[in-house]
């Protein structure tokens, strides 16, 4: 029965770690995901953010200029659900940290009973070789030395077109961008989501990633090279559950 149960649970384990998908792509490059509405993806959830009090725009009698517009007749920047804008990802992250720790402690304790109600003379009889002035002695010493160093240098420069999926009550825009590129048998995936202000969208309909609130940027992929560079899923499980 144990053998049958293990055989029945094997497809479930393989499906959970994505092995079935990888096995189905043996001998051919990974399949591209079809272009689709990002709001219909299973992992999509409408975003809720704190909103300021609503402000009603006062119409200007005889005015030709529209408040917030960069063009006299029409603003060409993305502003409505379904509009497309370009997200510029330019990450240059450098970190250099070094910590050194050294701690040493030495302690010594000594206790004697030179006078104990006149019974100190009987101590040598009770304890062979005991000296009343030097009955108990203790000493300890410990030391701790630690050193740690972290060096990181990351640079990511990308351009990806995204779609506005929501217009929040305060006018901010929720943007979702996805891109997949397949080169030979390697599939590269780029995903960017976040909230931008209409004022931060440049005149060429682009927005910088550091102007996006709640930004989520993922750049990775899958394929033959990724499989070779990644440890086997069994080793990954063992690394997680192994206590030592």
Structure description:
The chain is α+β, with helices and mostly antiparallel strands and 244 residues long. The protein has two domains: 31-44 and 70-98 and 151-244, no CATH class; 99-149, no CATH class. Helices cover 16% and strands 39% of the residues. It contains five helices and six strands. The chain has helices spanning 2-16, 19-24, 123-126, 224-229, 233-241, and strands at residues 84-111, 136-167, 173-183, 186-196, 206-208, 213-223. The protein is elongated. The two termini are 32 Å apart. The model has no long low-confidence stretch (mean pLDDT 78).
Give a brief outline of the structure.
The chain is α+β, with helices and mostly antiparallel strands and 244 residues long.
The coarse silhouette is elongated
Overall helicity: 10-25%
Main sheet: strands, sense, barrel: 6 strands, mixed
Stretches where pLDDT is under 50 for at least 5 consecutive residues are none
Give me the number of helical elements.
Answer: 5
Q: What structural category do the secondary elements indicate?
A: alpha+beta
